[in-house]
């Protein structure tokens, strides 16, 4: 508990807290573990190999000497011990009572199984020197009751262990050090990059939308991420500018009628001499305010449609009755204006959509067409089939939209927000565009005499 | 004197509405927040209520839902600055009887309150009568006295709506919403044109006029005096 709380309170240097540094440490740790296992294996294999070759040697000799005559046996032992410049050989012949007959072993260690080589500790005695040694030793009882023991010093094996340990240290320390250094460098680099990213994000948060994240040309995942984020920032910047543009448009749409109202009220206040005159001015002003409010209503309506929340109201809508209904609604208005309104249905299409919204869109188009068609002109509301798609077409013999402006208008429709500034088009068409976009349909203004607008109902959804 | 309960958090708006409705012969009591409003709605037994949509304490729609849940059927007009169509639908769905978007003309408010207080005659009769005017809902025919009036289906629907609400001020917005089931405000004076056609057929030059156009407000159908 104490240790844990103590260690957590020790502040780590900044670089040590980066993920990169930690992963480097983890990898270095794993590397050390692997090396240890590997070296352990090498040591174990070498030791086993040496031991087994020692064993083969001593058992071989043991059998040869045991098979010889007693005299030859003594000579052989002496010869064996004489020809041992490295002083690694151990041999001894002991009586049945354990008394040493010849050899350089002081006594026979206990606990040995005859004929099986095993580790043992013996005391070497020669030239009046006594020293304890670790050996590999095998014994064999002889027919005359004596016991023959042949052994070999195994300190070489320990020497190999030492070599292995040294090699391990020599390779491990620099490798671990290198890992730590690499980890440090990587983490410092990523830290520098991250703090740069952080700094820029903060400046974006503070309102500088032109700021972008740094990228290199390395195309690494970090770079790809930064590129994606930059793309997103670009979109956001464009949208924010657009919103600012919409704000300007709204301000313009509202300012115009409000300015008129203000001027009217001012003039009325200064000039009206009778209550009736004042009333007229007030009535006109209320009319102007209503106009401003209508703009607000239309804007809210567009926002509502663009918010896409009405998708759940979608159902199968029959276009033919809808168009007939719009025609029925606008017929008297057209008649009053001495404009013929014709409804031509050449298709019995059903689309997936919101009936109220589609009605509103078509009604708006017809409304505009009737409004802008001069007396004795004509408006045709048609439902056609073209290239496997249903097309709602509203054609009039009005002044139309000039070629140059047409493209701008169409383009603006795509964004569905700026057309409201185009003289004579009003907010109605922005609304139509918003509805069309919500349905995934297309809105086009076709060339030709007069004005032809179309809603192409692509049946993709 | 019909008694109204107004639940509206903005004092100035509330004062305006109270004064205006007071002038027109209503007895208005005012509650400034949702909780007080709900308490008053339960205790005072008003003839109709005007409830703002967004209120401190308790949302206007929650008040209506609570009252409806308790079996209190007082007609409610929902007032809201949230003018969107979806909001209107939600307001009516929670038990409101009518929905009016702020800002509104006072005459519009009064017309709607009066419409709420005088629910239309849902008589089982298949023939509606106002003065000399007679509408046969089965045979789909209309007569003024002995004179048969030829009506297009859309004109028939309009006249039926007006006859069920005789002597009531019907604003353009009310007609659009109710007769044409419109959820949008057309840019052209649709209602006036259609009403002009109907009036032309109902009131011939020698007849006493039955359909009156109240300038800037709406239309009333009355039996000729």
Describe this structure in words.
The complex is a heterodimer of chains A (461) and B (225). By secondary structure, chain A is of the alpha+beta class. Chain A has ten helices and twelve strands. Chain A has three domains: 13-208, Beta-Lactamase, CATH 3.30.450; 221-305; 312-457, 2-Layer Sandwich (Heat Shock Protein 90). Chain A has helices spanning 2-9, 19-66, 70-82, 155-205, 221-271, 275-306, 319-336, 355-372, 403-415, 426-439, and strands at 89-94, 100-103, 118-126, 129-141, 147-153, 315-318, 340-345, 350-353, 378-386, 389-396, 442-446, 451-457. In chain A, helix 2 runs antiparallel to helix 4 (155-205) and helix 5 (221-271) runs antiparallel to helix 6. Chain A is rod-shaped. Chain B folds into two domains: 3-117, Response regulator (Rossmann fold), CATH 3.40.50; 127-221, Orthogonal Bundle (Arc Repressor Mutant, subunit A), CATH 1.10.10. In chain B, the strands form three sheets. In chain B, strands 2-1-3-4-5 form a five-stranded parallel β-sheet, with helices on both faces. Classes of the chains: A alpha+beta (461), B alpha/beta (225). At the A-B interface, helix 6, helix 7 and helix 8 of A face helix 8 of B.
């Amino acid at each position: 508990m104490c240790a844990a709380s103590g260690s957590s309170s020790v502040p780590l240097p900044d670089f040590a807290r980066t993920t990169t540094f930690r992963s480097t440490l983890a990898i270095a740790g794993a590397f050390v573990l692997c090396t240890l296992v590997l070296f352990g294996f090498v040591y174990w294999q070498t030791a086993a190999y040496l031991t087994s070759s020692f064993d083969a040697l001593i058992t071989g000799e043991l059998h040869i000497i045991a098979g010889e005559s007693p005299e030859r046996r003594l000579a052989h032992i002496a010869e064996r011990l004489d020809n041992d410049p490295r002083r690694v050989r151990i041999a001894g012949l002991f009586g049945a009572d354990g008394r040493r007959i010849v050899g350089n072993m002081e006594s026979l260690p206990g606990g040995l199984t005859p004929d099986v080589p095993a580790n043992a500790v013996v005391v070497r005695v020669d030239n009046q020197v006594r020293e304890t040694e670790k050996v590999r030793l095998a014994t064999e009882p002889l027919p005359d009751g004596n016991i023959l023991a042949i052994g070999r010093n195994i300190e070489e094996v320990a020497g190999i262990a030492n070599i292995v340990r040294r090699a391990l240290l020599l390779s491990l320390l620099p490798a671990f050090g290198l890992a730590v250094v690499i980890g440090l460098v990587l983490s410092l680099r990523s830290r520098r990059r991250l703090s740069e990213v952080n700094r820029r994000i903060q400046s974006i948060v503070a309102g500088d939308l032109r700021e972008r994240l740094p990228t290199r040309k390395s195309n690494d995942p970090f770079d790809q991420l930064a590129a994606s984020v930059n793309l997103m920032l670009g979109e956001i910047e464009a949208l924010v500018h657009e919103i600012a543009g919409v704000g300007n448009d709204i301000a313009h749409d509202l300012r115009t009628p409000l300015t008129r109202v203000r001027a009217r009220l001012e003039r009325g206040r200064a000039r009206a001499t009778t209550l009736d005159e004042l009333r007229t001015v007030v009535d006109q002003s209320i009319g102007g305010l209503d106009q401003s409010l209508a703009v607000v209503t239309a804007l809210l309506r567009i926002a509502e449609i663009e918010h896409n929340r009405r998708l759940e109201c979608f159902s199968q809508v029959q276009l033919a009755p809808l168009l007939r209904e719009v025609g029925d609604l606008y017929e008297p208005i057209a008649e009053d204006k001495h404009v013929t309104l014709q409804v031509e249905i050449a298709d019995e299409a059903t689309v997936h959509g919101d009936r109220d919204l589609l009605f509103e869109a078509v009604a708006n188009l017809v409304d505009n067409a009737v409004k802008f068609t001069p007396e004795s002109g004509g408006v045709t509301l048609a439902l056609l089939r073209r290239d496997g798609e249903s097309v709602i077409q509203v054609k009039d013999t009005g002044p139309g939209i000039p070629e140059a402006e047409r493209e701008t208008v169409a383009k603006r429709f795509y964004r569905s927000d700026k057309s409201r500034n185009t003289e004579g088009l009003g907010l109605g068409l922005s609304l139509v565009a918003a509805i069309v976009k919500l349905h995934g349909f297309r809105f086009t203004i076709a060339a030709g005499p007069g004005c032809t607008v179309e809603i192409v109902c692509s049946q993709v959804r | 004197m019909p008694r109204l309960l107004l639940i509206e958090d903005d004092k100035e708006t509330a004062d305006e509405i109270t004064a205006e409705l007071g002038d027109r012969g209503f007895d208005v009591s005012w509650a400034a927040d949702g909780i007080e409003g709900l308490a008053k709605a339960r205790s005072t037994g008003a003839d109709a209520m005007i409830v703002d949509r967004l209120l401190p304490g308790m949302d206007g729609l929650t008040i209506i839902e609570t009252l409806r849940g308790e079996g209190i059927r007082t007609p409610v007009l929902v007032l809201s600055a949230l003018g969107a169509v979806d909001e209107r639908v939600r307001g009516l769905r929670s038990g409101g009887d009518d929905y009016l978007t702020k800002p509104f003309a006072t005459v519009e408010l009064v017309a709607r309150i009066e419409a709420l207080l005088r629910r239309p005659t849902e008589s089982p009769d298949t023939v509606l009568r106002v003065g000399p005017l007679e509408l046969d809902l089965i045979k789909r025919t209309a007569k003024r006295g002995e004179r048969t009036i030829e009506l297009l289906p859309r004109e028939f629907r309009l006249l039926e709506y007006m006859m069920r609400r005789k002597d009531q001020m019907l604003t353009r917005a009310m007609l659009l919403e109710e007769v044409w089931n419109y959820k949008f405000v057309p840019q052209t004076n649709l209602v006036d044109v259609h009403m002009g056609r109907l009036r032309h057929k109902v009131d011939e030059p020698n007849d006493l006029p039955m359909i009156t156009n109240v300038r800037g407000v709406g239309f009333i159908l009355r039996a000729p005096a």
